[in-house]
Amino acid sequence: AEYMGLSLRCASALRPRMASEQERGQVQGSESDGTSEDDKGNDGSSSDSESSESEPETKETNENEPLEEPEEQELQLYCSKSVEQPEVLQNGGESEVIQQCCKHCIIQKKQHEQVTPRRFLKGQFCLKLDGEGTFECTETGLIFEVTRSVTIEYSVLSWTKYAAYVKEPWIVVGPIFDIKCTSSALTSIQFPHTLCLNDHLSEKAFKVFHFKKNGPEFEGSIDHSTTHVKWHVSSLSPVGPVIERYDPVYYHGVVILYKVINSHPSLKFRVYIATNNNSFIKDISKTVRRSLNKFIKIEKPPCHKLLQNGKKYRLTSDPEADITPEEIQFGDDSTLAEKPFFEVYLEQPMELMLSLVDLESEEVVWKAKLRECKHILSRIQCMNLEIIFY
């Protein structure tokens, strides 16, 4: 097996650690370890949180809601502010929403109280708020406005379950969540979105996809900013931000890199380009985890260049490697079951520079440099990844 370690220019050295079979089989959700299991069964079901606290009331089962097939537990990657630490997983890992800084967007300073939820199995989050106020979840970016003390449970869902309902002219612009609350004290929710609005902030009309018992509705938002879409809570069930398609659509994007772990001396990677959408990123994680191959996943910052809907991008390497396909047309593929990716193959391990290039302008939007280490740890070949942004 091979191992890849990640080092950013300004980050300290990293220490790899192996996920044992016991860790994979007995993942415990907590506030500190960041581990979770993906949601199983019907998303309308109640949480199986291992908590002594009272749980929110369970909503009735929605017969129209698509079912999500059960999944195995996975050890989730945890990314700190200063060091991005990789983990060797049986079938990849799941990432958090990646923080970005866009020069085109005016990002206001955090004006809401930051709160960190408790984390449980099945990817469930739980917030127990003590009184009236507006609170922002540090894990998901959701912003809750409440009128009194309340308990809120929520989880990230997959848009693929609702693909039949999100058709033209609608496009997905952020994660979809299943949210439960103990009372009517929750008055509004702000959903993070992935669009770069640039100078057109006031021109856009966001909607909220709301999957109710009798089917989907597209409800109006009451406000939006460069980062969030605000919605008045009418009832609670799967909800997420959408917008009518316009041109051009610019996204804040991420590049996600996986390396195949096997006994061969060759190097093989999967490179995904995606919107910075937690539902999208979660789907990629599931796809990789279900693969017959073993992967290591490297967390890293997003592209500093915007990705445009409908544009084609090419991945290049130096030295030249076998890369398929030659190009990918970028778009928000949140509703697609299989996300497109580049496969990179190099017969012999060596220093490698990967570049993502806008096919039309030939502008480099992202670079990653991989260097082979001379030392061997536990018979695992180590390589460093240096991220270079433009």
From TrEMBL:
<feature type="compositionally biased region" description="Acidic residues">
    <location>
        <begin position="63"/>
        <end position="74"/>
    </location>
</feature>
<dbReference type="Pfam" id="PF23679">
    <property type="entry name" value="UPA-FIIND"/>
</dbReference>
<feature type="domain" description="FIIND">
    <location>
        <begin position="106"/>
        <end position="384"/>
    </location>
</feature>
<keyword id="KW-0963">Cytoplasm</keyword>
<dbReference type="GO" id="GO:0006406">
    <property type="term" value="P:mRNA export from nucleus"/>
</dbReference>
<protein>
    <recommendedName>
        <fullName>FIIND domain-containing protein</fullName>
    </recommendedName>
</protein>
<dbReference type="InterPro" id="IPR025307">
    <property type="entry name" value="FIIND_dom"/>
</dbReference>
<dbReference type="InterPro" id="IPR021861">
    <property type="entry name" value="THO_THOC1"/>
</dbReference>
<dbReference type="GO" id="GO:0000445">
    <property type="term" value="C:THO complex part of transcription export complex"/>
</dbReference>
<dbReference type="Pfam" id="PF13553">
    <property type="entry name" value="FIIND"/>
</dbReference>
<dbReference type="GO" id="GO:0005829">
    <property type="term" value="C:cytosol"/>
</dbReference>
<feature type="region of interest" description="Disordered">
    <location>
        <begin position="14"/>
        <end position="74"/>
    </location>
</feature>
